Amino acid sequence: MNAVVSAKQLRKTYGKEVAVDGISFDIPAGRIVGLIGPNGSGKTTTLKAILGLTSYEGQLNVLGLNPKTQRDALMEEICFIADVAILPAWLKVKDAVDFVEGVHARFNRQKAERYLAKTKLTPDMKVKAMSKGMVVQLHLALVMAIDAKLLVLDEPTLGLDILYRKQFYQDLLEDYFDQNKTIIITTHQVEEVEHILTDLLFIQNGKITLSASMDDVEERFIEVAVNPMHVEQAQALHPIDQRTMFGKTVMLFDGVKPELLQALGDLRRPSVADLFVATMKGEK
Amino acid sequence: MKQLTTLKWLLKREIWENKALLIWSNLALAGVILLVTILGVFRWSSIVFANNVPVNLQVETVSAGVAVYFNTGFTIFALMMALTMYSYVSGSLSQERKDRSILFWKSLPISDELTVLSKAIVALILFPLMASVTLILTMLISMFAVYIACAIHGVSLFAALFGNGVLWGRIGTMCLSLPVYVAWALPTVSWIILVSSRFIRRVSLWVALIPIAIYFIFAIFNEISGLKMGTSGLAYVLFTRGLFSIVPNNWMSNFHISPALDAVPNGAVHFGGSTDLPAWSLFASADIWLGVIAGVAMLYAAARVRRSHGE
Q1: What average pLDDT does this structure show over B227-244?
Q2: What mean pLDDT comes out for the span B141-168?
Q3: Residues of A in contact with B109 (CB under 8 A)
Q4: Class of the A3-205 domain?
Q5: What is the pLDDT of residue A264?
Q6: In this model, does residue A282 exceed pLDDT 80?
Q7: pLDDT digits over B20-53, tens only?
Q8: Chain A within 8 Å of B24 (Cβ-Cβ)?
Q9: Are A79 and A152 in contact (CB under 8 A)?
Q10: Which structural domain, as residue segments, surrounds residue B62?
């Protein structure tokens, strides 16, 4: 069992609405996967299916277990933040740490306390008295101290200021992540995670529009700031997207050799956000 | 073993969340009762002894007074326990979905069955236990206050207050009927937990509305079909056992038990050793066991519902 998550024809409908439309994908161990899609694209539903929080059709295998029927065993191995600011109002910081330590064999108290020390949270503070960002900090400290094989983060940094967000992704990469762990992240702030991702999964209207490793992406996609005189020539190479910036036409190419493009203008690596926007347009 | 540790933490969790219902409500009630009692006792004693009002401090009179006082205290505590417990149970599985904290609890290795079990344990064991312990302490402190108030004036009521079966007998009966209460109240508690697993809002309304609707549908069908089956049995199952079994001593409505120790003459300490106290005979009835079976089934159903309704 090499793949940590393996989905085959995964499908989920809410009444007549198709949320996830028969998608298949594999996520191997030791990857950090960005699951990226617009609101209502089916990414949260996909995550919920992986976490055994919702019913689905098709086949899904997470760490060799069936999330529908073996959820209790699965939760020993994985951890997730399905939404931020959902800790109950009455919970105290110290009680939260005690509780998770009590029920989770893979929880490391020292680690949690180390993360908490970086925040303004005090042991006797109740969630009720925290700002939204502080609740997220507490939740992240708890989750990051769990040595899970699979960590699923759905918009984990919502409500956090930029300094803490940077710090969090730094910790995630340097302190938490290793070759035996797999992380799946969804976020709208793509530019903040793209440097830590190893793989991309774009999802739109319940379908996967791109599934590639960052290395592949780098090889496949090239952005060119096309010189005005070469625009027509560039058009002939079928760019997947184009926009105008500072009077220049910026075109995005998929699978066109850099040697061909070099003559047309300045080449650069497209950001994940640009890539995302381009693929979204293409699908419409 | 791991399951037991998890259960221990789940119970702690419930106590953290429900301190107000579980502890403070009892302490507040005890405080009010003690305040009224102590003020009353000292006022009464100063008037009585200062003016040499002839007062009957015979053992029988004092015992009767103690019995009335205990019964009143028991009734007040029992009612409050039923109300606070009802409030707790109706929020037991709906609250976590309302504030979405279920997503946090579900991210930890805790099974739905264990979660539901912890809620049933808190309702059926911790609530009655807390109320009983507080009631007993309140009673003892009150008795002691009466003793002090009289002792100041040179009259010792120690033997009359503490040295007979009235107080200890009642405390004993109450403690011994706790297991009966747990088994008897199980179907009602399970029913409310099941409803709270399914509905996020207006749990209390659905708890009552569903049995009432079932009753009326059956009654109407009964009329139309001309079957003319009795509906009182159904009413007993749905309402007495389904809805109101959390009221302490609710079984008395159906089981005519010789009134515990009221008839026992003074001085006869009737508890300790003997387990054949009246309420325990309920364990010989099919009624209580059918209730237990229905209750366990509903708890299991509640766990299934919690499982499939992630949010």
Answers
A1: 86
A2: 86
A3: 72, 75-76, 103-105
A4: alpha beta
A5: 85
A6: no
A7: 999 999 999 999 999 999 999 888 888 888 777 7
A8: no
A9: yes
A10: 2-308
Nearest residue of A to residue B100, measured between CA atoms: A86
Yes or no, beta carbons of B9 and A55 under 8 Å apart: no
The verdict on B232 touching A (C-beta cutoff 8 Å) is: no
CB contact under 8 A, B9 and A99: yes
Q: If you count residue pairs, one on A and one on B, with CB atoms under 8 Å apart, how many are there?
A: 69
How close B195 gets to chain A, by Cα (Å)? Answer: 20
Contact residues for B294 (Cβ-Cβ < 8 A; gap 6+): B187, B190
> Do the Cβ atoms of A102 and B99 come within 8 Å?
no
Determine the distance in angstroms separating the CA of B11 from the nearest CA of chain A, rounded to an integer. Answer: 11
Report whether B166 contacts B143 (CB < 8 A): no
- Closest Cα in chain A, distance from residue B108 (Å): 6
Q: Kindly report the number of other CB atoms within 10 A of residue B35's CB atom.
A: 10
Please tell me whether the overall predicted TM-score, pTM, comes out greater than 0.90 for this model. no
Spell out the residues 6+ positions from residue B269 whose beta carbon is closer than 8 angstroms to its own: B164, B165, B168, B169
Chain B residues whose beta carbon lies within 8 Å of the beta carbon of residue A124: none
CA distances from B73 to A252, A272, B33 (A): 81, 70, 8
What's the ipTM? 0.89
**What percentage of chain B reaches a pLDDT higher than 70?**
90
Nearest CA to CA, how far is A132 from chain B (Å)? Answer: 14
Q: What's the total number of domains in chain B?
A: 1
What distance in Å separates the CA atoms of residue A18 and residue A210, rounded to the nearest whole number? 19
Question: Burial level of B153, CB count in 10 A (0-12/13-18/19+)?
Answer: exposed
Q: Return the domain boundaries, chain A.
A: 3-205, 216-283
How does pLDDT run across B263-300, given as a tens digit for each residue? 443 333 333 333 334 577 888 888 899 999 999 999 99
Three-state DSSP string of B173-213: HHHHHHHHHHHHHHHHHHHHHHHHHHCCCCHHHHHHHHHHH
Handedness of CA A205, A208, A212, A217 (dihedral sign): negative
**Interface probe with B: pick from A103, A124, A149, A152, most Cβ of B within 10 Å:** A103
